[in-house]
Amino acid sequence: MGKLLAVAKAREAELEAHRSTLDQQRSSSSQAAAEAEAEARAEHKRGEEARGELWQRLKRQAVMQAAEARELQQSLSLNRGEAEAARQAAAQEAHHLRHALSQSDVRLVEVSNHLRSAEEAHVRQLVLTGVIATKHGRKGKPHPRHVRVSQSLRRLEWGKPAALVGRGGGDDEKRSVDVGEISEIVPGVATEVARRSGKGKEALFLSVISPARTLDLEFASAELRDTWLRALRHWRGVRPHGTGHMGLLLGRMGLQPGYTGLQPGNVWLHPSSYRAAASLTHGCRPRAQRAHGRARVHRLRCLRRLRRVRCLRLLRRLLSRASQAAANARFLHSCRLP
After folding, report:
1. Where are the alpha helices (DSSP H) in 160-265?
2. Is there a single domain that holds both residue 163 and residue 123?
3. Pair 111, 156 in one domain
4. Is 259 within a domain?
5. Best CA proximity match to 184, nearest among 153, 158, 215
6. Which of 22, 239, 294, 302 has its CA 20 to 30 Å from the CA of residue 191?
7. Which residue among 199, 220, 240 closes a domain?
8. pTM score > 0.70 for this model?
């Protein structure tokens, strides 16, 4: 009986010890759970704070991006307005350039016409006045001759100078050659007569060559020779087309230098002016039975037609230059704008 009590007491003490151990474990476990719960709550709180901070940062970024988008839109609208203003300024500048170009072309045409008229008047006065030059022939000695162009501007004449005629040097036997017969006007010693007489004096010689004969002239100086070379070549290039303004205008339109008058069917035209000049030259020279007044009216009518043709050509050239200037302005504008 005593053993059983002792065993029971020992078992009770063992159970008490086990219970105390369990109580300690429970207390430690509850403490650990409380600490874990506190840590979880702290972690949740930190997560909430981080989430709130991230949300605030995202909101700030969204506001900043919206502000930047508004600024970009405003700048784009300003750039569009600037581009439109620049385009309008370029168009206005191109218009001014076209106007200035047309004005400069008109002034250039006027100046060139004035210079051409002055040059033609000077050449006309020079060839009509003439010059004293030494003529070399196939026979006889060289002798001075007065070389000039006739009043009709159709023939090149030479004869004794007025001083020799006045001193009893004989009759003034003038000789001449028609401008249509002249094939060349060359400087230097280009003919047999010139080569025989002009050794060492090539800069002073000038030869007028035709199929029938040659006119070899020696001038006092090389400058005088060059002046008369240019004058005679200009006279030969202009006057074969007829007398007066009508022949001069036809010559500028491209008539053949060998053409000697306004005859129907006897005209050579440059392809670009065939229709205009062919219709204008028909019947320009009146027949013998026509009255002088009717012929004059007909020539004036032809002259007005020619002037209209030239005005149309000038207008087309001005329009072409204006379109080229506009294209250049558009190209500069495209290079200047992004």
Report:
1. 162-166, 192-197, 222-238, 244-252
2. no
3. no
4. yes
5. 215
6. 239
7. 240
8. no
